[in-house]
């Protein structure tokens, strides 16, 4: 299904049509080139689960999954991703259930304010799909792109290790 | 960020033509440095030429040489079986840089062209010769903790922050570029520049030239190598000092060694005299220590970064010893506890 966004759009001459499949739905937007993927998600598509922490690539709060890879939506222009498939925190558990990582984050008390959480979870999904981390030290290193200002890091890593090990992590 | 036009390019020739047809235009690859600079208004462009659709195979072998596609991501390159097996030093150095998300976006070409992280370069309210030639250098008498100790000039003491390039320097890579005048090959040691009196020029790429690939010689030093990165936090931070060591041993003596430093100068730093000194010597702490003295003999510290001289020496010794047993390296090139 192709949904034209009803949000205000720019009609300036250098705006172009950008097609994205977001959380399984085809979207078509008319955007100026300077609109970042992060602003497009939050401002044009009302998908505010993806957070803007620093807007400069330094915190990981804006992490989304693009064509299967975790990336920072704040340092990507939406036009660069024309034709891509994007999964945001809103789309990780399509059936309405919680994703195993969401459950583990709750069980492990892996957040306080919750601002970094969507980015942490999208990043962890990307990290597990990459399959490059075997030990806890490797998981920590490959999750270092997501900062938690509340300092819930220990519980975040515990939650991810539980899911990575099929629920048997102590 | 100012308003600009956006063009996609489908081939190398198309990209070079598009950039040549527009003034104040830049290539955009991963965007991880360019978009950041645009957001700070440190760079203004009239248009961007997207080179991401040019991508072919990320890593290819040709007559024993290996070519890294300039438009492939840092992550694809670091995890490519040829790189992991034949050039593990390069893999480790790439994986010590930035974060997993950024490495999924950042390209090999873009990595060579990232700009310095000098605080004053990023602060448009302060004088900076690199940003605005002739305005002065705020760092020389300012807070210069993360700046250079080698190859500086009275005009600029910035460092080049790449990790990947430290390994490329040790591996004697060649940068292959295409411009409207045709193709050129630039040896890695001649790619980045010292500041001298033109600190606004980071490298010798000409305007509108496109990096198309990076060529690695056959020799990958896969048996004895190590990358060590020292920084204020153990991950997701730029290096204060980093070291790449590539070593070939024969009968317990050093047949060949390459030692490249990152975080200390405006380009990856190698000292031929130190590498020659170690040739045919035993790979001992004493010999590495003497080599470290040679490498740092011309180092000059500033008010807040003099500590880097001793740090670099110790990092060289530690890393050369680690190269004798590469499995001692920790994830992200962190130092051992
Ligand atoms: C928070 C953060 C932390 C980081 N930490 C590290 C780190 O620890 N170590 C490290 O090494 N790096 C680090 N980086 C830098 C990162 O590696 C670079 O930003 C990245 O490699 C740049 O590649 P890109 O493809 O995104 O380049 P872009 O941002 O797309 O482009 C950078 C420049 O190169 C030009 N360009 C791009 N490709 C080509 C080409 N093929 N030919 C000619 N010109 C081209 C562009 O016009 C632009 O001027 C960090 C970045 C961030 C944001
Ligand atoms: S060190 Fe170089 S980049 Fe930093 S303020 Fe001085 S001139 Fe600018
Ligand atoms: S908002 Fe993108 S990394 Fe912080
Ligand atoms: S839970 Fe508050 S920033 Fe991580």
From TrEMBL, chain A:
Keyword list, A-Z: 2Fe-2S, Iron, Iron-sulfur, Metal-binding, Oxidoreductase
Mitochondrion listed as a keyword: no
Name assigned to this protein: (2Fe-2S)-binding protein
PANTHER family the UniProt entry points to: OXIDOREDUCTASE WITH IRON-SULFUR SUBUNIT, OXIDOREDUCTASE, IRON-SULPHUR BINDING SUBUNIT-RELATED-RELATED
CDD domains noted in UniProt: fer2
A Pfam family matched in the record: Fer2_2
Boundaries of every 2Fe-2S ferredoxin-type domain copy: 16-92
GO molecular function: 2 iron, 2 sulfur cluster binding; metal ion binding; oxidoreductase activity, acting on the aldehyde or oxo group of donors
The organism's taxonomic lineage, starting at the top: Bacteria, Pseudomonadati, Bacteroidota, Sphingobacteriia, Sphingobacteriales
UniProtKB/TrEMBL annotation, chain B:
Flavoprotein recorded as keyword: yes
InterPro entries: CO_DH_flav_C, CO_DH_flav_C_dom_sf, Diverse_Substr_Oxidored, FAD-bd_PCMH, FAD-bd_PCMH-like_sf, FAD-bd_PCMH_sub1, FAD-bd_PCMH_sub2, Mopterin_DH_FAD-bd
Domain FAD-binding PCMH-type: start-end pairs: 1-221
UniProt feature coiled coil, ranges: none
Annotated keywords: FAD, Flavoprotein
Gene3D superfamilies named among the record's database cross-references: 3.30.465.10, CO dehydrogenase flavoprotein, C-terminal domain, Uridine Diphospho-n-acetylenolpyruvylglucosamine Reductase, domain 2
GO molecular function: FAD binding; oxidoreductase activity
Highest taxon above the source species: Bacteria
UniProt entry tagged with the keyword Flavoprotein: yes
Protein name: FAD-binding molybdopterin dehydrogenase
Native species: Pedobacter paludis
